[in-house]
Amino acid sequence: MSFQFSPDARNAALDAIEAAIGTAPKLQIRSGTLPDTTAEADAGNLLVEIDLPSDWLETAADGVKTIKGIWTGTGTAAAGGGTNAGHFRIKNNAGTITHVQGTITITDGGGDMELDNPNIAQNQSVTVTTFTLTAGGA
Predict the structure, then answer these.
(1) Helix, strand, coil percentages, rounded to 5, for the chain
(2) 2 inside domain
């Protein structure tokens, strides 16, 4: 049997995720295949690193927590002439602990995170268009 949670419990769990990760975390957009777990070492090349704002997600409502503000960064030298983003990792503000990871696609492509253009070149502006955490147990 699956557990079911009230809307208040789901919202509190989602807000606790943001609190546990902390303020001003780092978003790393990387090439290659997503590691199996957040405990594994980084995979692929770092294409973009964005210092997220202090308050980086909206307050959870109806079991959903969405991006707050605009998350934009610039392609690094490692991106070369254009490399497809394969996955993302959200780390603490020191960049040493991975707390969340997932897939990346273009906007409306169905990835865990969606970008305006996932083919990233050096000095290219990159904008996260969609990122949503959804609680289970509804």
Answers:
(1) 15, 40, 50
(2) no
pLDDT, mean of residues 39-64: 95
Residue 102 lies in a domain: yes
Q: State the average pLDDT for the chain.
A: 92
Q: Which residues span the domain enclosing 55?
A: 7-134
Query: Which residue type, as a one-letter code, is found at position 13?
Result: A
* Vertex 124: Cα angle to 103 and 127 (nearest 5): 50
pLDDT tens profile 69-119: 999 999 986 656 678 999 999 999 999 999 999 999 999 999 999 999 999
Q: What pTM, to 2 d.p., does this model score? A: 0.92
User: Beta strands 113-115 and 98-106: pairing type?
Assistant: parallel
**First and final C-alpha spacing in the chain:** 13
Q: Total structural domains in the chain?
A: 1
Cα angle 2, 87, 116; round to 5: 110
CA 49 vs. chain centroid, Å, equals 11
